Amino acid sequence: MEKMSRVSTALGGNALTGRTMHCHLDAPANAISVCRDAAQVVVAGRSIFKIFAIEEEQFVEKLNLRVGRKPSLNLSCADVVWHQMDENLLATAATNGVVVTWNLGRPSRNKQDQLFTEHKRTVNKVCFHPTEAHVLLSGSQDGFMKCFDLRRKDSVSTFSGQSESVRDVQFSIRDYFTFASTFENGNVQLWDIRRPDRCERMFTAHNGPVFCCDWHPEDRGWLATGGRDKMVKVWDMTTHRAKEMHCVQTIASVARVKWRPECRHHLATCSMMVDHNIYVWDVRRPFVPAAMFEEHRDVTTGIAWRHPHDPSFLLSGSKDSTLCQHLFRDASQPVERANPEGLCYGLFGDLAFAAKESLVAAESGRKPYTGDRRHPIFFKRKLDPAEPFSGLASSALNVFEIEPGGGSMSWFVDTAERYALAGRPLAELCDHNAKVARELGRNQVAQTWTMLRIIYCSPGLVPSTNLNHSVGKGSSCGLPLMNSFNLKDMAPGLGSETRLDRSKGDTRSDTVLLDSSATLITNEDNEETEGSDVPTDYLLGDVEGEEDELYPLDPEHAHPEEPEYVLPQEAFPLRHEIVDTPSGPEHLQDKADSPHVSGNEADAVSLVPVDSSFSLLSISHALYDSRLPPDFFSVLVCDMLRFYAEQGDVQMAVSVLIVLGERVRKDIDEQTQEHWYTSYIDLLQRFRLWNVSNEVVKLSTSQAVSCLNQASTTLHVNCSHCKRPMSSRGWVCDRCHRCASMCAVCHHVVKGLFVWCQGCSHGGHLQHIMKWLEGSSQCPAGCGHLCEYS
Amino acid sequence: MFVARSIAADHKDLIHDVSFDFHGLRMATCSSDQSVKVWDKSESGDWHCTASWKTHSGSVWRVTWAHPEFGQVLASCSFDRTAAVWEEIVGESNDKLRGQSHWVKRTTLVDSRTSVTDVKFAPKHMGLMLATCSADGIVRVYEAPDVMNLSQWSLQHEIACKLSCSCISWNPSSSRAHAPMIAVGSDDSSPNAMAKVQIFEYNENTRKYAKAETLLTVTDPVHDIAFAPNLGRSFHTLAVATKDVRIFTLKPVRKELTSSGGPTKFEIHIVAQFDNHNSQVWRVSWNITGTVLASSGDDGCVRLWKANYMDNWKCTGILKGNGSPVNGSSQQGNSNPSLGSNVPNLQSSLNGSSAGRKHS
């Protein structure tokens, strides 16, 4: 309402009203022009030339100017213009080079007035002088511009652009004698109408053709040009050299450009191909259109603001044979739809966040939530021309980093690096991993490992280690088995363990008894473990060593100082042939399934609800008493693995799967295992834990996984002596029969990590080469090559 | 618990997307100023812009990294109706700008006739594939048959969604039991209350993507959508940014129970719904394990959501977008205006879950 009243004052009482509407034409339009009364529009094209009245609700055809029997090429219009002073005067530019004027005041049906046949090729543009009634200007494909006085039969003057075709001519609105013309070679020329001999000024405005230009209705010096280079440029012509004020990037070549009335920085554009939309830009925000009209289904060929003082009505004609009136408030607004924020979670728990500065600037200035953002109420506010430009939108970019120890993913990396997955007896693996988990503050995981040990290893070992610990450092930092291993400490979500607990009705918690009885059997159980669980390959290790050596008891023992538990760089020492199915521990652990498995014992698990506060120690004791086979628990353990996987801790699921090996593998379907493996490996690779990842691949039993590290393993190397490519025969060159893997520094054969220069083929021990290249940039072999190590 | 590190992005217009690479050591930003910038993390943790170049002739909506196995590759999509694939060229530095790496355009995907609103690379195990979606409601899946040749992409699938699309997300699961799946969100704001999230699944037999599910309860414009990293889970978790934050779980119903050959049936539950942003939610992003969801809204804040052992999702942190003192975001998360207001949400999520459940 407010807007309408403003419009009516501007128009002296004749407020424009109307709505977004369109009408079908019989043929594609090439150009449109509006009568100065803002109530009529003329549409011209190859086979159409009509005048429409713009009514409140619709377009009404008023006059068809294409009369006569034979279709004349003179009527095939490339451009049309309606005189802004004389409501009866129109001019068209024909594709055959003819310029025609029309007088609507003629009484006959044929309104054709004058015919100028001076141009040799298509006339691209015609333009009336804004204040002079009889002056018409034309620009043609033949490279000439002509000025006509409608009172005379011929042109008054001819202007030669001295270059290629003229695409647009426009009289300056303020300078009586000046007009601008644009050319296909990218130039813009400024002419004085009194001096046809040479142009006043010429400059290159675009790369490629300049299709259009438009003088600013208020700023006398501003000229907007649009070109095939998809740009709209605004030039200040008042200075000595034309100065580029603004540059708008559109998405397609610019066919028409029209300044928006009453909005100093707005202009409308349409494109010549590909893009059918009309955009309105604020030249100060050159990247995002302020508004977009999407009605047309084919190229928009003509645009015109309906009234020189009304910014809300835009008319357009299109190749899709429609004539449209667009209301500005119905335009879609890419700015409003555009996402003002970007957010990404990083690998280490850090967050990158980019947000529009106005959103994050002042909490107080925030608008309350009022439903849909695109409610029209915002449009009106936003597009009120009186509203000052809010400045270029910009975003604030922040990365929120997790403070050390604040819940980043370091636990994952530490866990992956420190877990032992194979190479030692099951009990040790479990204990080690439990210890790692506990040191990283992951008590639930630690307890799980401990429980696995209880389940799958003879119970005797548990108290023995426990005993050691309590002897070593007292209760506070010992294994939590004794004093804190009750269900209250466990997350209630650990369903499987809870059930495990409930399956036993025994509520004894006599630790002293347990201790003593367990200690008695420590030794024999140890032997049993070695005999049954340890794969023969692993016996190379120090399994038979003292318990004390295996479990350093120093409470101050921080993890970096425990090299014996950190995985060695080269995976693990087990060296086996690379075969398609890696020989994990499972081949050797069949004995773990004790002979007296009685099938469905798991079914017998009774779910007797019990008080959840009693100690789990009672279970280990009970286990010991009844000697339940480990198979009994496999259902529970599988449930537990699934639980961890569903919680997102696939690391635990895979680690347990590998450590337990054949004990649980058969109970989990192959596809799930593969899924876990691939997920975990992907995660390890994200953290660039290549060695751990490779170990997991090696230890996996899934075909699809274990083949992962056997693809693309071919290395192409040259002999370091004769520089010829080595055959596949290993490290002995079959040409010079010398071993190519000699270290260039120490002259010994390299076993292990070998690094070589791809430029000169010389190399050697990684350490040696690194050390050498610290002091010298030349190849240690003395070949003079400048090797680089990075 | 968080430290804000402000970065002078120096984009000339709004930044629409930020994206970390596979290892979290590089970051790409894209903006309406038609450029993409690449940031590398230094040893000290600072982010340095190592490349900035004009990528499109319109606003760049999204930028995303390919798996590093395919090289240092980015894809971007824009208002100019194209998506583009970029590769970093190493070595032979034309040392004009030292420290600036060189990115070359490998391909332009020009099939869309309207603004391309999102682009995402498929999970690595599917090969080098990417999906785009556009404002005209078509999701396109492209594949580079030769991973060594990034300039050849063939359009494999065109999926019509009937609604203007705003965002897509691939299901990241690497399990053979889970067929390739794409969730598509729409920001269509027309008043019809159509469901705005559709899920398409690849059918091995017909070799086409077919609609598997529609999240009927989401009827407001959707701005972002994200599957959580799967990491061995048997079910899928999907976060939706609309006028609020919503989290859905999709549990595949066992194949034997459904007619074989057809699309997988899912048991869909809404497990959380939060309107704490009190405004439109623009972005959702999962942490690497899929246990914490970050969301950002018109209030200029990032909120972190985490489930407890009971699978109740709670707000665990609020970060202010201007990097202003994140004063005790942890307290804020635990103590609570947020928790208090969660209670009614919890209710609604329970209601929602029964409503969202599918009876197939």
Automatic annotation (TrEMBL), chain A:
GO terms for biological process, alphabetical: autophagy; cellular response to amino acid starvation; cytoplasmic translation; negative regulation of TORC1 signaling; negative regulation of translational initiation; positive regulation of macroautophagy; positive regulation of TORC1 signaling; positive regulation of translational initiation
Cross-referenced Pfam families: WD40
WD repeats by residue range: 116-158, 203-245
Keywords, ordered alphabetically: Autophagy, Lysosome, Membrane, Metal-binding, Repeat, Transferase, Ubl conjugation pathway, WD repeat, Zinc, Zinc-finger
Principal EC category: transferase
Pathways per UniProt: Protein modification; protein ubiquitination
Molecular function terms, GO-annotated: ubiquitin protein ligase activity; zinc ion binding
Gene Ontology CC, one term: GATOR2 complex
Signal peptide limits: none
Main location: membrane
Subcellular location: Lysosome membrane
Lineage top rank: taxon: Eukaryota
Alphabetical list of InterPro entries matching this protein: WD40/YVTN_repeat-like_dom_sf, WD40_repeat_CS, WD40_repeat_dom_sf, WD40_rpt, WDR24
Role noted for this protein: Catalytic component of the GATOR2 complex, a multiprotein complex that acts as an activator of the amino acid-sensing branch of the mTORC1 signaling pathway. The GATOR2 complex indirectly activates mTORC1 through the inhibition of the GATOR1 subcomplex. GATOR2 probably acts as an E3 ubiquitin-protein ligase toward GATOR1. In the presence of abundant amino acids, the GATOR2 complex mediates ubiquitination of the NPRL2 core component of the GATOR1 complex, leading to GATOR1 inactivation. In the absence of amino acids, GATOR2 is inhibited, activating the GATOR1 complex.
Quaternary state and interactors: Component of the GATOR2 subcomplex, composed of MIOS, SEC13, SEH1L, WDR24 and WDR59. The GATOR2 complex interacts with CASTOR1 and CASTOR2; the interaction is negatively regulated by arginine. The GATOR2 complex interacts with SESN1, SESN2 and SESN3; the interaction is negatively regulated by amino acids. SESN1, SESN2 and SESN3 convey leucine availability via direct interaction with SEH1L and WDR24.
Family from the record: Belongs to the WD repeat WDR24 family.
Name recorded for this polypeptide: GATOR2 complex protein WDR24
Lineage: Eukaryota, Metazoa, Chordata, Craniata, Vertebrata
Gene behind this protein: WDR24
From TrEMBL, chain B:
Extent of the WD repeats: 8-40, 274-306
Signal peptide residues on this chain, from the entry's feature table: none
MF annotations from Gene Ontology: structural molecule activity
The entry's keywords: Cell cycle, Cell division, Centromere, Chromosome partition, Kinetochore, Lysosome, Mitosis, mRNA transport, Nuclear pore complex, Nucleus, Protein transport, Repeat, Translocation, Transport, WD repeat
Comp. bias intervals (Low complexity): 324-342
Nucleus listed as a keyword: yes
Role noted for this protein: As a component of the GATOR2 complex, functions as an activator of the amino acid-sensing branch of the mTORC1 signaling pathway. The GATOR2 complex indirectly activates mTORC1 through the inhibition of the GATOR1 subcomplex. GATOR2 probably acts as an E3 ubiquitin-protein ligase toward GATOR1. In the presence of abundant amino acids, the GATOR2 complex mediates ubiquitination of the NPRL2 core component of the GATOR1 complex, leading to GATOR1 inactivation. In the absence of amino acids, GATOR2 is inhibited, activating the GATOR1 complex. Component of the Nup107-160 subcomplex of the nuclear pore complex (NPC). The Nup107-160 subcomplex is required for the assembly of a functional NPC. The Nup107-160 subcomplex is also required for normal kinetochore microtubule attachment, mitotic progression and chromosome segregation. This subunit plays a role in recruitment of the Nup107-160 subcomplex to the kinetochore.
Name of the protein: Nucleoporin SEH1
Species: Cavia porcellus (Guinea pig)
Gene name of the encoded protein: SEH1L
